[in-house]
Please model this.
Amino acid sequence: MPFIEVRKSEYFARLFGIDAFIVFESRQALRQFQFRVGRDNFCLMHVSLVPVLGVVGEQKTKPTQATVRELRALGLSPDLILCRSSTELHESTKEKISNFCHVPIEFVIGVHDVSNTYRVPELLLTQGVYDVLCQKLNLVKRPNVDFEKWREVADSFDRLKANGSPVHIAMVGKYTGLSDAYLSVIKALEHASFYAQRGVKIDWVEATDLEDPKGEKYEESWNVLRNAHGILVPGGFGNRGIEGKIAAAKYARENKKPYFGICLGLQVAVIETARNVVGWANATSEEFDKDAARKVVVYMPEISKTHLGGTMRLGSRETIFKNDQSVAYQLYKHLQPENPNPMRVAERHRHRYEVNPEVVADISSKSGLQFVGQDETGTRQEIVEIPDHPYFVAVQYHPEFKSRPTRPSPPFVGLVLAASGQLEQWLSSKNGK
Model:
């Protein structure tokens, strides 16, 4: 069967008011696109709100009629209308929208509130959206669509939410005022919670609040960190909040608190170990002090120091494990059994800095921090961990980018299992001990 590529584009905007010009421009681009690819290769789905008013629960269709009329004025005719509503869409409401918007009634889809978003795909499937898309785009239908695994995910979400005893993960970040900045990390934790069968509650900790003992939120932030079952330090750029992240890594190492670092989270773990275990008090990153005497994290040699745009190390790249004894290796091996060579894993990257290859041997020999995964050259460090610790793992890449509800990211699963006290037993059962 030939490979068929289907691309999905989303446009979010109001049709009236201050955004009108921006909306007009985006709609014009979309209108021209449909002629460029041809109507047989284009399907427009319009998502519209159907408010429910009054105690009788009347569903109002005027907003949908108005937005469809405006779309048509811009040269766009919806193939499907997806109606968001707090209650299940009445048949009479569907008929009214069908008549006034000139769309077949079977193409008017009700998307009412459900217990969690993982139930939405099955909700669409039962209303024939899959059949409509195959028909409109001339796609070959699969004989059987198995939703069992997806249904299990949706059931797990509801079950864990009702459980009432979640694992608390302290997220020590720099952009905690906007949680969407860490949306991929949040979802990866959610996926891991499904596998571990333990709910996860994220306790946000602004890294700068861990730095100044006289700060307004200093004690409160440290109490959140101490009471958490695990600590996660995600990626970021710049030196703001770095000392707070280093302090969080130090606390996790010294108090045997499960720790997971991503990208910058790996770099601060290496800096903390170099300072407080190896004894290099002035250890830092070239990102924070380009003239530092002890740079344990440096600019990658192939990266431009004068141009920031398009100069990061990006994309999926292989990490090679040094041996099969590390916790990280065990997690990947057992959670990704389809991998023909578990000594190699491919993850997505997004960074400009790396652990200084010149200090790796010294740090390994003088501390408990082990560099267990490298790139193909063996010089660029990708994974570090502390063996004598419930869970202290940090990675240079971004595993959250490949996490899926039915295929969670192994390092995230390790964190949730360790934070819930299940990791040791899980490893024993997988290794037949």
User: Anything to note?
Assistant: The radius of gyration is 26 Å.
